[in-house]
Amino acid sequence: MAKHFHEIRDPIHVFVRLTSAEREMVDSRAFQRLRHIHQLALTYLVYPGATHRRFEHSLGVMELATRVFDVVTRDDNLNHTLRSELGELQERREYWRSTLRMAALCHDIGHLPFSHAAEKELLPNGWTHEQLTAALVCSDELRSIWNKRKIQSEDVVKLALGPKELPKERFSPWETILAEIVVGDALGVDRMDYLLRDSHHAGVAYGRFDHYRLIDTMRILPSPPMEDEEQSDGLALGVEEGGLQSAEALLLARYFMFSQVYCHPVRRIYDIHLKDFLKEWLPAHMFSTETDDHLKMTDTEVTAAMRLADRDSGHPGHLHARRILRREHFKPIYQRNPSDSAINPEAGRAVFFALCDKFGADSFRHDRYPQGSGTPDLPVLPRNGKVASSLALSQVLDRLPAVSIDYVFADRVIEKRAAAWIDKHRDEVIRPKSEEESHGQAS
Amino acid sequence: MDRLHKAALITRLVQALRAHGSWCGETHIQKATYFLQELLQVPLGLQFILYKHGPFSFDLREDLTGFRADELLRLEPQPPPYGPKFAATERAAYIQGIYSQTVAKYRPQIDLVATQLGPRRVTGLERLATGLFVTFDAAAGATVEARAEALHGLKPHVSPEEARAAIHELDEIIRQAETLAC
């Protein structure tokens, strides 16, 4: 007898269960390609265990999205007002549950080889991997899967990408909540899964938090009020008061994973060398946005090309491939510190340009990453029933620093000389010039 | 506009909003910045979309977090149940000093926005900012009635009367902005 449910073993969630329709999606070319896209790009060169792929992450996101959906839409977790505001939930609960699961599966299918590492500068102007995801979801191959199940591909795109990536789309409150379940800034399951999974594979404990407790306490709530006696309009994903510590743990996990793993300086310089390699190796110096080309291009093709380039000095990208494969990466010679940041928040940029002027641009790379996600101002439902801002109730969240990195890397050949020069000239290099001074010099 | 020039202007806006009585949570800054860029043509390079409380920029949210990381802005938690306020730091004043010409150039625009929007609460800001959004979206010369209807359509919790009043108020702000541009 044919099975209607399928089970996949998973190191984080134990089992991920799929319907036959979802299995068809998993078996599609777009999803199978994710078996060959490393979740953390070249991080395995620093943390050898971090060889996991977007394939299992996407399955994990589907699993967690379903758990959250089932909790927040449970009848006893919705009050009367919410039920009336979320008419779409009442009318088509099963439709939205299936669509959410599909969206969670699809949310990463547009990723370029090596995930984020190579995205910027390697796509034509205005393109992002999210747009590639949208194009693939609406492709003929996947459309046939949606059509059989009466799922609208546009709904899958909306829930997989959210309002941030689809500025021209209008989202209903219900669609906004569903997209928030997948890609939300504070409590999105994409983030939950990658923190748990990345820490597991990297072999670090920083990313762990009690996601069982967190999910069990998640609720759809009115946004926290912002001013005296004014109740905010709009709904958001939040937690019951009993889940606040688990939410704190998630946000602390994010902070530690960013500061210790994702922003590790050697990992960051490998990303830059990879980007340099791709710029030289790719035809037209960027990735194609044609879906067929995209489906053919994975980490495997890029790695094979790097190995060729490493052995052949005439191959495009030879130098950069060597830097990666022979571990001849540039070394950090400057990094952000509180004293310099007080003088110039963009001190690394100033140092980088000064070094390029002095020694030549080829020997240096600059990497600046200010944390993008917002303050974790999520609604919390206390026992008195009056929704409050998490930042008003938590003594942890308002003290949580935002991650901000600013590195300058140097070729090993010049590293010591450059570091000595910067030590000597640091004060004058990082001091920002006022506009009066700059204009005076220009004239 | 590079990041530090933008920091000088946004932190200056935060100070001006607070000086005019704004609560100065993220939503207040979002709406004020929308007016500053879209109506008063201050080139901050932000993309705005229609979101929960009207026009909203994820780029600006990222900038605000980045400015906190650089200690140019700080959060002031409020007693439950309220969300936090933003405040500019001493370091922001230092950056504004370095980019004093840019701050001086856009000071009239910042002052106009702060004067007009600073005293308003979130509900009022949502109506005005969404009103401006529908005004840009509407055909040139669209009537108050047509724009009020569009505003009510986007935000059904804003009654038609409230929408009309908001569009009238908005038109007065637009008139002042045009005067400033002359």
Secondary structure: elements and pairs:
The complex is a heterodimer of chains A (443) and B (182).
Chain A: E1 5-10, E2 14-19, H1 20-26, H2 29-32, H3 54-72, H4 80-85, H5 87-91, H6 93-106, H7 129-137, H8 140-148, H9 153-165, H10 173-183, H11 189-202, H12 211-216, E3 218-222, E4 235-240, H13 244-262, H14 265-281, H15 291-296, H16 299-311, H17 318-325, E5 331-335, H18 338-343, H19 347-359, E6 364-370, E7 379-381, E8 388-389, H20 390-393, E9 404-410, H21 415-430, H22 435-442
Parallel strand pairs in A: 4-7
Antiparallel strand pairs in A: 1-2, 3-4, 5-9, 6-9, 7-8
Helix pairs in contact in A: 3-6, 3-11, 6-9, 7-9, 9-10, 11-13, 14-17, 16-17, 19-21
Chain B: H1 3-19, H2 26-39, E1 49-51, E2 54-56, H3 58-69, E3 73-76, E4 85-88, H4 90-98, H5 100-117, H6 122-137, H7 144-154, H8 160-181
Antiparallel strand pairs in B: 1-2, 3-4
Helix pairs in contact in B: 1-4, 1-5, 2-5, 2-6, 4-5, 5-8, 6-7, 6-8, 7-8
